[in-house]
Fold:
Amino acid sequence: MKFPEDFPSKLPDVGTTIFTVMSRRAAEQGAVNVGQGFPDYPIDPRLAACVTDAVAAGFNQYAPMEGSVALRAAIATKIAAAGGRSVDPETELTVSCGGTESIYSAIQAVVGAGHEAIVFDPAYDAYDPAIRLAGGRCIHIPLEAPRFRIDWDRVRTVLSERTRLIVINNPHNPACTVASAADLDELAGIVRDRPIAVIADEVYEHVQYGRAHQSVMNHPELRHRSFAVYSFGKTLHITGWRVGYCVAPPTLTRELRKVHQFNAFSIAAPLQAAICFYLQRHPDAWREVATFFTAKRDLLLSKLSRSGLALPPAEGTYFQLADYSALGGELGRCNDVEFTERLINEAGVAVIPLSPFYREPPAGMRIVRLCVAKRDETLIEAAARISAYTNQRAGT
Ligand SMILES: Cc1ncc(COP(=O)(O)O)c(C=O)c1O
Structure:
């Protein structure tokens, strides 16, 4: 064996994610980037001031492995203020490197060789590789456009003695749907009396358009077997800070921390202190998130109203889906990856195709994802370029 050239990859099918690829392409071509989910507007200056204060106050060395005591207390206060249950920050709350690390550590904590874990496609891309690295088998259940609802009967058909984990994502990226109370009851019925843990990826908990968030944390049964995952990146518009957290019952938290302490170990001390100061000084800041994003989504929808795209209003997340199948001619016949290529090359707009979120993309997928977490000018420019392009090309 030639080393390292022939060294067997543990994830042979994994390349650079579609998000990174599209952001790179957008930068190279000077395209308007409404692809990857990150804000392009400045953060709250009061939050920036908290970082300066944190560094000056000496929060510059290793933070505790499970997260700063003060930040965990502030998170528990915020959870209660948002109508959540009482969480013990000592035994049920762990600060992680973004929501991603909570998801990874939770998966490593409960999935092992010979186990199976269920995810729903289109799925956020971090789940499947983490399950396989843990030695498990990932079972993908497709959700069908345009409603993308979970078929719980279908879930029952794939359960086995080996099932150890079900991963749900609510609100759902990229489907932009939110789960109902009935969905959580169905899930509870499925896992009842079985050794199955749940990861509820709830990083968009506050990005919901007029609906109440249904959290596993508040469900009388699911709370006892779930890792609920959150992200300050999403809630405070600071995706680059990489600070998230996981709420789980003490036994699951203990196992998650065993992985976390040898993976991330602990999270940037000044950033934890800054978020803690911010939550203490501005305890209601997160309440503005839903109104803020509703305005962004509605702006994008109105500016795309003459584009010929079908735009089922997003129920939650940073995103809005656009179905281009009604466009006439060649454009309407392109698959979603080709359509995305054309948009970036010919219209100067980067979006994300939906099929890479599926293990087996449904035939004829004609949907792309646009990010609404952008300055109004970015959304207006992206919509103008898309509309001009679709109108010029439709029917040709
Ligand atoms: C559904 C979903 N889960 C998890 C994450 C990761 O969150 P973080 O950036 O805090 O790691 C994202 C980020 O885009 C996401 O969309």
User: Anything to note?
Assistant: The mean pLDDT is 95. The longest helix spans residues 376-393. The CA atoms of residues 281 and 307 lie 43 Å apart. The chain is about 40% helix and 15% strand.
